[in-house]
Write a structure and sequence with these properties.
The chain contains twelve helices and ten strands. It is an alpha/beta fold. The N and C termini lie far apart (78 Å). Helix 2 (41-57) packs across helix 10 (260-275) and helix 7 crosses helix 12. Strands 1, 2, 3, 4, 7, 8, 9 and 10 form an eight-stranded mixed sheet that branches. The chain has helices spanning 2-23, 41-57, 72-79, 98-101, 109-112, 137-146, 161-173, 185-193, 204-213, 260-275, 277-285, 295-316; strands at 30-34, 61-65, 87-92, 113-128, 152-155, 178-181, 199-203, 217-221, 247-255, 289-290. The protein has two domains: 28-122 and 247-316, Bordetella uptake gene, domain 1 (D-Maltodextrin-Binding Protein, domain 2, 3-Layer(aba) Sandwich), CATH 3.40.190.150; 123-239, Periplasmic binding protein-like II (D-Maltodextrin-Binding Protein, domain 2, 3-Layer(aba) Sandwich), CATH 3.40.190.
Length: 322
């Protein structure tokens, strides 16, 4: 009888070890898919996160850049991966635009992808050349009403984050502007600096150097609170457009069929990543404010963003191509 009890106890212990091993993140390499080209902001964030995650998970984290179609190609790969936590997607808020920007996606964003954790946020800057007459969001709105269709804004292309940020500005303010799309944010910003286009709502990392050099003036920042990095720059909401908020974010997703317990565990690991002092400093240098949400909070954020951008995109008929 005693032998049977010992055998049963040993079997139970062995089963527990096997079960823990099945969900362990320490005995295999992990792939972190980035659905954008190497060198961009999302890629930089992924490499900062991956370096720390590798140590915490006890597994090598491989960054896999799969750019194309505005992030759709890489996201599709993540949606087709195994739901074992070994393959994750690190992407931007663009994932919540895509369901409305594209007539048909090769995946269902809500069904096929599981929100795991938010990594951080970054506001945009409403910028113009120093010679532009508007000095605030209020001035810009007034100018647009005085010159219907005569005020221009630059973007990195149709359906880009800068396009949607400006569309939201127009949507909330009721002002109408003339869109001048470029093949990328850098040439768009260069023409704003040169005064060829009136304004742009650009990413903070992309515009901050020109702002500090005095070649661009900031008319406002797109977050609801002022940035600790730019405390003298007022928010767009406080300078003429109450309620306006556009904050880009970065987050990690897994396959939709990933077990909830594993998603929760991954969320806890990523919480350790974004609260690590060195990681936080590295993100802040890139203009990204580290931010952690629970799985439920992040899932609710994604759902809310999909709904909000659908309203804006449908109103303005925005697509990835005109």
């Amino acid at each position: 009888m005693m032998t049977s009890v010992r055998v049963l106890a040993w079997l139970c212990a062995f089963a527990s070890i096997v079960a823990a091993k099945a969900e362990s993140l320490t005995d295999r390499s992990m792939r972190l898919i980035v659905p954008f080209a190497a060198g961009g902001t999302v890629d930089i964030v992924a490499r900062i996160v991956g370096a720390k995650l590798s140590g915490l998970a006890g597994a090598k984290v491989v960054i896999d850049n799969r750019g194309g179609a505005g992030g759709v190609i890489g996201t599709e790969m993540a949606a087709q991966a195994r739901g074992d936590g070994a393959t994750l997607l690190l992407t931007s808020a663009a994932i919540t635009y895509d369901p409305s920007l594209h007539d048909k996606l090769p995946y269902d964003t809500v069904r096929d992808l599981a929100p795991v954790a938010m990594i951080g946020t970054t506001p945009n800057l409403l910028v113009a050349a120093p010679s532009f007459p508007a000095r605030s969001a209020r001035d810009l709105i007034k100018l647009a009403h005085e010159r219907p269709g005569g005020v221009t804004f630059a973007t990195g292309g149709y359906g880009s984050s800068s396009h949607l940020a400006a569309a939201l500005f127009s949507y909330v303010s009721g002002a109408r502007f003339n869109h001048v799309p470029y093949k990328g944010a850098a040439p768009a910003l260069a023409d704003v600096v040169a005064g060829h286009v009136d304004f742009m709502i650009a990413t903070t990392p992309g515009a901050i150097q020109q702002v500090r050099a005095g070649s661009l003036r900031t008319l406002g920042i797109s977050s609801l609170a002022r940035s600790p990095e730019l405390p003298d720059v007022p928010t767009i909401a406080e300078t003429g457009l109450p309620g306006y908020e556009y904050v880009a974010w970065f987050g990690v997703f897994a396959l939709g069929t990933t077990p909830p317990t594993l998603v929760t565990r991954l969320n806890a690991l990523l919480h350790q990543v974004v609260t690590d002092a060195e990681t936080r400093d590295n993100l802040i240098v890139q203009g990204v404010t580290p931010k952690h949400l629970t799985v439920d909070e992040f899932r609710a954020t994604v759902a809310s963003e999909i709904e909000r951008w659908h309203a804006v995109i449908e109103k303005f008929g925005i697509r990835t191509q005109p």
